[in-house]
Amino acid sequence: MREAIRRFGRGTSGKTGRPDSFCRRSSSGRRELGVLMTAGLLLLSARLVQAQFTVLHRFSGPDGLGAYGSLTLSGSTLYGVTLGGGSSDAGTVFKINTDGTGFTFLHEFAGGATDGADPYGSLTLSGSTLYGATLGGGSSDAGTVFKINTDGTGFTLLHEFAGSDGAIPIGSLTLSGSTLYGTTVVGGSSDQGTVFSINTDGTGFTLLHEFSGPDGAWPSGSLTLSGSTLYGMTEYGGSNDYGTVFSINTDGTGFALLHEFSGPDGA
Questions:
Q1: What CATH class has 1-160?
Q2: Is 234 helix (H, G, I), strand (E, B) or coil?
Q3: Could you write out the DSSP letters of every residue in 70-90?
């Protein structure tokens, strides 16, 4: 497993990250299309009524390795990311037609100060622009938020995390109007993770919440938006340190713990 995944365990809380659990939690998407996570990493199209499937693309490493997140569909084109592979083995953004033709790299990550590395989660589509995040890369190697056009042009780093403002963004970005919302698994004032917002042009980066432990720690997964309220979960924290469910307004006010897991009810 790549170093960026191993960095889940670098927080100051003393917890040890379990990257394999994140891999196992990947699941197939819609009834027609999905990703099967095996040693060979196959991209599949399944026709459930006829009980048959078709391999659309088999990743081999140079064209990507470790496809994570769900596929994003627009018309007859699917968009996705691979955690590794590509020319620098730092991950890729790709597209492929729903009939398996036209597999194309939109971007091959290189890492370092001017690019991201190890994209994780699904891409968020708005118009002809895709938005996503990487676990590593950027000036502090703490992860990035990026955008890229569906034709592969216009790749831009919208934000480079530095640790104090969050590190290692996990999950997909949630879009509302011209604002993206997301979480980082660590970083912030207590190194327990953050909730953030950023405009689609890269301006207005704001920390909406910095977790400290009793209020949750290590947020994972994507945020769910309803009206002006975001809902999410943390893997740890709360009164029993077994994780939480929380809500917070899009302006950062009104943070509340909706549930603190205790073990018998989940952990």
A1: mainly beta
A2: strand
A3: EEEEETTEEEEEEEE-TTTTS
